[in-house]
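General statements about sequence and structure are easier to judge against a single worked case. For one protein, we set the task of working out the structure tokens from the amino acid sequence alone. This step matters because it turns folding into a mapping between discrete strings. The amino acid sequence and the backbone structure tokens for this protein are reproduced below.
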Amino acid sequence: MYDPRKLELVVDVEPPCPICGKPMRRLPTPREFKCYFCGEVGKGDVVCEEEHFICESCRLASAEEAIERIGLAATESDPVKIADKMMKHPAVPTYGVEHHLIAAVAMFVAMKNLKAGEKAQAKDIKRLVKLTGKIPYGSCGFMGVCGAAAGVGAAFSAFLDASYMKDKERTLAMEAASRANSAIAREGGPRCCVASVYIALSEASKMATELLGIHLKPALPLGRCEFAEGAEDCRRERCRFFEGAGA
């Protein structure tokens, strides 16, 4: 890791790092770094002191494209870690339908990564993004169904190859969405897309462990949410993820 005190012509660059919030620095000469989001190696001269680097493809990606790229590159079996990386992408807003996609792709990829010999394919991720992208903004309030909950239902459906004509697979996909929706409802409001994603992934992970034997152990950021500052409707101490909650 570089030491900015030992380099000449290193200057702060605005805005700060979207990943850790620390100042970005322009190096005197480009170096090779691994992209934080997709893992591809590329040359760059702008990084933060933690050496977080974003390749050009990820930097220019739309939210949907970023979610696909991150999902395809992810090797983790913790859906929360995958979702966190997606939510940190600059194109992903604090609130929005993008979180429906994030819940679906993060859950699907985590299950695939934990199952021996399987890896999420680009076509499956693209299909999930297209499908969950149809869930309308505000569906939690206007329809009584949180898009993140529907997203994990879609993940189960894709993982199990469910359809409306199948028996057990259809039931499990609906049960995943139902459990997640109920847990999000119990959390209270107003809306928080980040918290909804965390809760949906937590509930779906429990179900994957109990009913599918896929032992996911999501590391929930209890008391250490990194997205509260940009959340205008943050419930603060009423939310279990907010810093200092329950203290």
Q: What stands out?
A: The longest strand covers residues 24-34.
